[in-house]
């Protein structure tokens, strides 16, 4: 195990934690409560926050399990790429709501997802 592999594992672990926590919260929290914390929820269909949350949980899981178990490890870079696309959408939603400061974490997470996708596909 070399330093780049260790670094990728650290990034994967932190990303997985962030995505599973954020996605789980979106999927499990009632819409009315989400609207008090996230202004964008009001402009989306009722099912959208739950679907976004489920995608984040699935992607976070995909960052770790396939590579860890060796079962279809190609899914780890795919999960990273898909989460990066999801984070591009998150940045756009924040920008559309004039919340550029709120888009910074999504942008950073998106860049880290790209690092995982590229690092694990080499």
How would you characterize this protein structure?
It is a single chain. With 122 residues, the chain is an all-alpha fold. It has one domain (3-22, 54-121). It is built from five helices and no strands. α1 packs antiparallel against α3 (48-69), α1 crosses α5 and α4 (75-96) runs antiparallel to α5 (100-121). The longest helix has 26 residues, at 3-28. The radius of gyration is 15 Å and the shape is elongated. It starts with a helix and ends with a helix. The relative contact order is 0.15. The model has no long low-confidence stretch (mean pLDDT 96).
Question: What is the rounded distance between the termini?
Answer: 15 Å
Query: Into how many domains do the coordinates divide?
Result: 1
Order of helical and strand elements: HHHHH
How large is the share of residues in beta strands? under 5%
Which outline best applies? elongated
Helix coverage percent of residues? over 70%
The computed structural class is mainly alpha
Number of strands: 0
Q: What is the tally of helical segments?
A: 5
Mean pLDDT: 96
- Give the radius of gyration: 15 Å
* Biggest sheet descriptor: none
Poorly predicted sequence stretches spanning 5 or more consecutive residues = none
